[in-house]
Amino acid sequence: MNSINLRRSGPLAAAIALAVSGSALADSAANPKETLEEVVVTAQKRAERLIDVPISMAALTEGALRDAGANQLGEVLGAVPGVGIVDSGSGTQNIEIRGINSVYGNSPVGYYLDELPFTYLGNTQLPDVRMYDVERVEVLRGPQGTLYGDGSLGGTIRVLTNDPNLSKLQFGADVEGMTTKSGSSSNSEQGMLNLPLVDNSLALRLVASREDLGGWVDNAATGVKDQNGRAADTYRGKLRYAPSDRLDIVLSAWHTKEHVLGDSTSLPDFTSIDPVTDNTTQYNLYAATVRYRFDSVDLVSATSKMQYHNLADIADYFGFGPFNTEQHIDVLSEELRLASRGTGMFRWTSGVAYRSVKQHTNLEIPAFGITQDQAHKSDSYALFGEATWSLTQKLDVTLGLRLFKDDQQFHEPVDPATLALIQSVDPTFTGTTNPNFQTVNPKLNVAYHFTGNWLGYATAAKGFRTGQAQPVISLESAILHNPPISIPTGIDPETLWSYEVGTKGQFADGTVTVEADVFLNNWKNLQTVVFPAPRIGALINGGPARTKGIEFGLGLRPVKGLTLQLTGSFIDAKYTSDVAGTNVHDGDSIISVPKTQFSASGLYRWPITAGLNGFARAEVQHTSPRSGTILGLPDSDSITAVNARLGIEAGAWGLFFSAENLTDESGAVDIAQSGNTGVARLRPRTFGLQVTYKHD
Asked: Residue 9's pLDDT band (boundaries 50, 70, 90)?
C-alpha cells in the first residue's frame, strides 16, 4: 500500500487518513496481505495519525471495542501497556498508569468524556463509562501537564463519543443475555438513532443503554444470595449544527444512573460477611463545543457542566449500626484554544482554561458520634501552549508550558468543644481554610521520523496533582490519640518529572506495527494516609518515590482476516526514602501496582458464504500481584483472565457467543480494603449470547 505522510497535516488529516484506511480495506480482497487499521487521533488537540504522535499512547477504535464485545471501559484497558485497573464492581474503578497510583486525594489520572473533564475532589475513583457508540478511547501515558493540566500525573484517558452524522440516517441495537457460574443471570439492551434534520447541516444522535447485571456473592452473615447485583441506565443526546465548512457546533447531554448492592469483594468461595453498601450514583453532563475554522487557525470553545450525586448506605457497619454518606458535586469548565492550520514547519496550540468545582459531602456514623458536613470549593485557572518546530524534514522539536493556579476553600462546621481542642494546638484554626496552589508545568519533546511510518522520540515533562485540606475529624483524632507523626491542616501538591524514550512504526507494507518505550518518573510529596485512631485516616505528604519501566506493543496481520496483538509492561514502582511515623520504608513497593502485565489476543474473520462471515476472537490478560506492604496487608494474587468470542456476521447483523473468565479465575485482583475480610475478585465464568444490528 502506498503511504501518505500526514505528520504535518492540518484539520483535513482525519478525512484523508480515514479515506486511506478505507481504501486499504476495500482492496484487501485482492491483496492476500491486509494492512492494520490506520488510526487518526486528537491527543495533541489536532488531528494526526496515531503513528505520527510523538508520545506513548494507545487508541481503541469503535471497531476494536465492538470486536472485543466491550460494554465497559475496564474490560479493555487491561490490554493497554502500563495501565492497571481495579474494578470492584461498585460502579467506579481505580486506574493507575506507569505505577502512579493512589487511593487518596484527587485522581492521578486525567479523565475526559469528550471535552468534559470528569473531576472529583479528594476521590481517586473514576466512572464506569459504557462503551456503546463510542468513537474512540485514547490513553495517553506519562504526565500530560501541558495540554491537560492538574491530575494528569500518570497520564490521561479520553472517551470520545460519536458526533451526529449530518447526512445519514443511522440506527442500531445490541441485545445480550448472560449467565454466571453460581450467580444470577444478566441482560443488557443498547440502542442508537442518528437523524439528519436538515441535510448536511443539522443532525441529532440519541443513545440509550440499560444493564441489569446479576450478582454472585453470597452473604453468610445475612443469608442473602447473589447480593452484588447492579443496574445501570445511560442516556446520551447530541445535536450538531454545521451551517458552513467553517462553523461546527455540538451540544450534548448525558445522564447516567447506577444502583449497586455491595461489590465483588468476597472470600475465595465467593461468600462474604462484610457490611453491604447500598450505593446509588448518578450524573448529568452538559456540554457545548464550538469550532470555527479561520484561514490559518482553528478556534475551539469547549464549555461543560457536570452534576454528580452519590448516596451510600450501610445498614450495619461491622456491628456498630448505620453508616451513611452523601455527596453532591457541581463542576463548570471552559476551555478556549487556538491551533494553527496547514502543513508548515511551525505548528502550535494555545489556550486558557477555567474550572469551578463545588462539592458537598455529608457523613454520619451515629455509633461513633461522627458527623461530617464538608463544603469544598475549587476555582482553578490555566494558561497553556505547545509549539512544534520542524527543524528538518525529519526532526521535530516541541516545547510546551502550562501555568496553573488553584484557589480552594474548605469549610466544615465545628462544635465549640472540638474547635477549642484544635485551637489549643493551632490557634488560627476556624473550621474554614483557604489553601491555594500554583505550578508551572514545562515539556520538551524531540521526535525523529526515520521514514514516513517510523518515528523515534524523547520527552521530558512535569506533572502535578493539587493539594487539599484536612478533615476536622482527622485533626481531632490526632490530638486525642497523639500519633507519632504531625498531622497538618492540609497537604501540599504532588509533583512528578518524567523522562522517556520511545519508538513506534509500521513495517512490512503496513502488516506489522511496533511500539516500545522506556521511562523514569521521579515523584515527590506523595499524598499518603496515616491512621491516628482506628478507622480514622489523616492525610500527610510522604515520599519521594520513583517508577521506571518498559512498555511494548506488537500488532500483526500475517494472512488475510487474521489480526494478532501482544502488549505488555514491566514496572518497578518504589518509595526512595523512609517516611517517619508511617509504615513506609525506602525500597517499599508503591501500593497496588503490578510489576508485570501482558495481554495477547487473536481475531480471525473468514467468509462462510456470500454475505456471511465467521468471527473468532480470544484474549488472555495477565497481571502480577499488587503490593499491600505499606498497609500491612497481603499482596493480591497473580491474575490470568481468558476471554473468548465466536460469532457470525451478515452485513448489518451479528450473532455472538461469548465466554468471560473462561478459566474461572478466582484470585484476589487487589489488596484487601481496610477492615474488610474479603477481597475484590473477577466475575466467575460467564457465558453470553449477543445479537447486534447497525444500519449505517
From this structure: very low
Neighbour-count burial of 586, counting CB atoms closer than 10 A to its CB (0-12 exposed, 13-18 middle, 19+ buried): exposed
Which residues 6+ apart lie within 8 Å of 514 measured at CB?
Answer: 503, 504, 505, 507, 552, 553, 554, 555
Confirm whether 5 is domain-assigned: no
Domain of 462, CATH number, reads 2.40.170.20
The reply to whether 381 falls in a domain is yes
| Gap between the Cα atoms of 414 and 260, Å rounded | 33
- Intra-chain end-to-end CA distance of the chain, in Å: 27
Q: Which residues contact 570 (CB under 8 A, 6 or more apart)?
A: 549, 550, 595, 596
CA distance readout (Å), 487 to 386, 425, 474, 578: 39, 11, 8, 17
Mark 654-680 as b/e (b = at least 16 C-beta within 10 Å). bebebbbbbeebbbbbbbbbeebebbb
Cell numbers at 182, concatenated: 453460581
- Determine if the peptide bond prior to 544 is cis (ω within 30°): yes
Query: In which residue are the cell numbers 454545521 written?
Result: 242
Q: Which domain holds residue 478?
A: 13-695
464, 439 in Cβ contact below 8 A? yes
Domain-embedded: residue 31: yes
Domains in the chain, number: 1
pLDDT at 589 > cutoff 80: yes
DSSP state, 27?
A: G
Tell me if 83 sits within 8 A of 77, measured CB to CB.
yes
SS3 114: coil
Residue 475 belongs to some domain of the structure: yes
Measured from the Cβ of residue 652, the count of other Cβ atoms closer than 10 Å reads 12
Q: What share of the chain is helix, strand, coil (3-state, %, to 5)?
A: 10, 55, 35
Residues 103-127: pLDDT tens digits? 777 888 999 999 888 877 777 778 8
What letter would DSSP give residue 471?
P
The region that residue 561 occupies, defined by phi over 0 for left and psi between -120 and 50 for alpha, beta otherwise, is left
Task: Fill in the amino acid letter for 492.
Answer: D
C-alpha cell at 635: 499482596
Collapsing DSSP to helix, strand or coil, 40 comes out as: strand
Query: 311-329 burial string, b = 16+ CB within 10 Å, else e?
Result: bbbbeebeeeeebbbebeb
Rounded Cα gap, residues 430 and 422, in angstroms:
9
Give the DSSP letter of residue 100.
B
Starting at the earlier edge strand, list the strands of the sheet with 92-97.
83-87, 92-97, 126-127
| Alpha-carbon span 666 to 658, nearest angstrom | 19
**What does pTM read for this prediction?**
0.90
